[in-house]
Amino acid sequence: MPEGNTIHRFARQHNRDLAGRRVKASAAQSRFARQARALDGRVFERAEARGKHLFHHWRGGPIVHIHLGMFGDFYRRAAPAPPPRETVRLRLATRDAVWDLIGPPTCEIVTAEEYAAILARLGPDPLSPRPDARRVIEKLERTDLPIARALLDQRIVSGVGNIYRAEALFVTGIHPLRPASSLTREELERLWGAVTRMMRRGVGQERISTIEAGDRAAARRGGRRFYVYGEAVCLRCGGPVKRFPLAGRTAYACPVDQPLTASRRRGAKSR
DNA sequence: TACATATGATCAT
DNA sequence: TGATCCTATGTAA
């Protein structure tokens, strides 16, 4: 169940294990068997992460587009690995390492044009080398969507998922339901800062924790990895965390540390 | 064994 | 908004 940080970590690991090598490709599931045969024995050029999308570039042209959705995952096994389970969509093997891909809604060979089209509809990725923060902030300023909905819109910013939206909004003190256009420039800049800071840290974490320096001791005492995500009580104030559906997902917020503005409270009664 | 749940996104209505 | 795709895991029964 990956957000952009996990996809970027996989890209690094795949580059380390596979880039520049001739790779044995196979599929335990028939639905990708033909494509796997087309890749088998080719040289794996490089892996590339863009938001939550992963691309494998193969020598000779094929580009494999992978999206892990909710359930997709990669498993690394030391070589030689036992035969793949039936759920393995794609296995990439060298003499030293084996990567199994499980459960992706998307795993397909795309043309250069299709690849370009996918990139074109993605907003800036906080994990790219020099993300265009201004473009994200300007888009947010121009939308009336609740900020928590806008953060999951991959056309605005790519790679943010449910954990980072909850936690970045918390540390910036912004309620998820505030319209993006109601945030000040200063709030948007702090929000972008929190998103990039947390996600960059997340690339190196097997298990995500978003706790920032000043709160580490309290988090350790409580055995906590998050401020509000999936939690019953707020790490800072101890009050109950509110949870509600938003953009098809569960949103989390501390009503004390993330107040709605007065105008918002008057203006909108529901949702 | 069954069921709920999960860090996602798309398409139909 | 709801149905759909995709799988592993933890808990309840």
Comma- or semicolon-separated keywords:
271 residues; alpha+beta; N-terminal domain of MutM-like DNA repair proteins; Helicase, Ruva Protein, domain 3; 2 domains; 5-stranded antiparallel sheet; 4-stranded antiparallel sheet; 9 helices; 11 strands; disordered C terminus; DNA-binding
Write up this protein:
- This protein is α+β, with helices and mostly antiparallel strands.
- The protein folds into 2 domains: 4-121, N-terminal domain of MutM-like DNA repair proteins; 133-269, Orthogonal Bundle (Helicase, Ruva Protein, domain 3).
- The protein is 32% helix and 21% strand.
- The protein has a 5-stranded antiparallel beta sheet with strand order 1-3-4-5-9. The chain has a 4-stranded antiparallel beta sheet with strand order 2-7-8-6. Strands 10-11 form a two-stranded antiparallel ribbon.
- A hairpin with a 3-residue loop joins strand 7 and strand 8 (97-102).
- The longest helix has 19 residues, at 185-203.
- Residues 263-271 have low confidence and may be disordered.
- It binds a DNA duplex (13 and 13 nucleotides) through residues 1-6, 52, 67-73, 87, 89, 102-106, 152, 154, 161-164, 208, 229-230, 248-249.
